[in-house]
């Protein structure tokens, strides 16, 4: 009987160890995921309707801290340029240094270096711009447009400025990856820009970070539940074995 008791105690200790290990690993993943996200991302509130329907005024977004040199066509970026005002703005990059941007071709599409670009993210199915324009983007700069071209005050408004409405890459502080509140989706990289030289930027690590947090929560809950259940099961087996040994039914 003493041998059986030791076996049950061993199982109980193993259950406690596994429970503690699951909770410990879960805490590491949970806290680590949040800490990693806090380092890589910063929250930002969108001030205007210029990027509707991708993001709306008042939306809380998560923007990955990036250097302007990492920006590619199609990215939705946060930037500050004194020529546009002193507040951070959110726009979409449609052209980089060396590009010739024009609108609109016969189908109403924007063209980049003569190549028509499908823009499914636009607010309306109207032509990509209410007014025709052309611009050449200087090296080291970006041409930025809003997704609601009817109301967006973007590079088109600054076409007469030096650089034909473009802003320096150094003006960019972050790239928007997702709408955090109200709960929204990840902001995907546009497929149309992927076909152009240089392609599109890689997705940020947000999904991996959220996955770490989710797995951490599962492990913490599983560990917290498994420990008491394993201990209760071990006690129940010991009681049954004692009753069987003493002939008590």
Write a concise synopsis of the structure shown.
By secondary structure, the protein is of the alpha+beta class. The chain has helices at residues 2-40, 191-194, 206-246; strands at 41-45, 60-65, 76-79, 89-96, 100-103, 110-112, 115-117, 133-136, 141-145, 167-168, 172-181.
Could you walk me through the main structural features you see in this protein, from its secondary elements to its overall organization?
With 249 residues, this protein is an alpha+beta fold. The chain has 3 helices and 11 strands. The strands form 2 sheets. The protein has a 7-stranded antiparallel beta sheet. Strands 7-6-5-8 form a 4-stranded antiparallel beta sheet, with no helix packed on it. The longest helix is centred in the C-terminal third of the chain and has 41 residues, at 206-246. It is elongated, with a radius of gyration of 28 Å. It starts with a helix and ends with a helix. Residues 1-7 have low confidence and may be disordered.
């Amino acid at each position: 009987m003493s041998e059986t008791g030791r076996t049950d105690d061993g199982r109980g200790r193993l259950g406690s160890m596994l429970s503690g290990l699951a909770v410990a690993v879960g805490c590491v993943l949970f806290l680590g995921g949040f800490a990693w996200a806090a380092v890589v991302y910063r929250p930002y509130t969108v001030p205007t309707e210029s990027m509707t329907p991708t993001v709306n005024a008042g939306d809380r977004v998560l923007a990955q801290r990036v250097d302007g040199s990492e920006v590619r066509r199609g990215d939705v970026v946060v930037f500050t340029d004194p020529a546009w005002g002193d507040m951070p703005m959110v726009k979409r990059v449609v052209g980089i240094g060396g590009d010739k941007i024009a609108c609109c071709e016969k189908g109403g599409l924007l063209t980049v270096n003569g190549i028509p670009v499908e823009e499914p993210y636009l607010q309306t199915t109207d032509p990509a711009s209410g007014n025709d324009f052309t611009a050449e983007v200087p090296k080291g700069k970006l041409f930025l447009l809003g997704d609601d071209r009817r109301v967006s005050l973007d590079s088109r408004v600054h076409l007469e400025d030096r650089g034909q409405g473009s802003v320096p890459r150094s003006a960019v502080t972050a790239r928007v990856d997702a709408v955090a509140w109200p709960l929204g989706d990840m902001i995907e990289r546009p497929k149309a820009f992927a076909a152009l030289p240089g392609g599109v930027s890689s997705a940020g690590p947000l999904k991996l970070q959220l996955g770490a947090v989710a797995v951490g929560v599962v492990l913490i809950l599983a560990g917290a539940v498994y420990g008491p259940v394993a201990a209760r099961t071990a006690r129940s087996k010991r009681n049954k074995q004692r009753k069987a040994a003493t002939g008590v039914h």
